[in-house]
Description:
mainly beta
Amino acid sequence: MIRLAAAGLLLLIVISAANAQGWVPYRVNTGGTDLNTVYFSDTRRGWVGGDDGFLSRTDDGGQTWVRQTVGTKAAINDIYFRDKEIGFLLAGNSIFVTRDNGSSWTKSRTFLPEEFEGAEVELYSVRFSSKNKGWVVGSVSKRERVVDSILVYTDDAGQSWRRQRAPSRLELIHIDFVSDKRGWIVGADGTILFTRDSGESWTKQNTNTNATIYHIDFRGDKNGWAVGERGTLLRTTNGGETWIPIPTKTTVTLLSVHFMNDDDGWAIGRGGTILRSSDEGKTWVQQESTTRQNLYSLNFNKKIGWAVGGEGIVLRCDCD
C-alpha cells in the first residue's frame, strides 16, 4: 500500500519517448500501481486517479503533476466535474466531493457492508444530468462474486445520495447522459439500460451480445458507441433502439471510447490497444502504440486527448 504523501509533493513526469505524432507516452510516479481514470476540466487542468487512493493533479497541461491527499486507500475508479468548481470522485465504496476546483476532497457518502447484508460495494462511474441531479453505478459483491448492481442518485447536487433499483442485478460499469432526460448505463452480459425521463425509470436495450460492456459515449440523442470484451464495439444511430456490431479486427478487450466530434473517435483497451475512426464509427483502424500496458480510461478536452493505464502510464495526443 502506498502511503499518501502530503498535498503539494511535486511529481515529475518522465518522458519515456519523443514521438512527434500520435499518442506520446509519459509516466507518472505512482510507485508501480495502475492509473484507472483521467479527467481534464480544461486543456491545462486535469487529474489522474488509481489504485491505493492515488490522486494527482496538473495545472500546466501535464508538464508537472502534484500529488493530492484523499482520505482513502481504495482504488479511485472515476473522476468527474459537474462544473469548474464542483467535482466528484469514486473510490471503492465511497463518493468524494470537491467544491473548490479540486483543491480539497471530502467524503460525501460511504456504502457500508451492513447496508447490504454484509456484501461489499464498488462504485465505478459518476455523471450528472443537470446542476442538481447526478448518478453513480457499480456492483455489490460477496466473496468476490457479484450478487447485485447498485444505482444511486442525488437531486441536491451531491448533498445526499439514495438508492434506486435498476432492472438488472448484473454489474453496472459506466453511465453517460446527453441531456437532463436521456441517459445510458452499460455493464456485464451485454447490458445497456436507457432512461428518457431523467432516470425515473430505466429499460433494457437489446445488444445481441453477452460480452461485458465497459464504456459508452453518445453525441446527441441518436449517435452512440459502446465497447467491451473480445473487441466488442457497438454503434447506434437511433438512440439505442438498435445496436450494430462493428468489426474491429481485434479480440482485445476495449475499455473506453470517446468521440471528439461527429466523425472522429478513439477507443482504447488492454495491451496498449488504440483504435481510431474518422467516419462516425463505421470503420476503425488500429494505431501504433508506444506501450503494451493496459489502457483503462480516455478523456478529451477540445482536441487534446489523454489515456491512462498500467504502472502509471499516461498518453497524450494533440489530435487534429
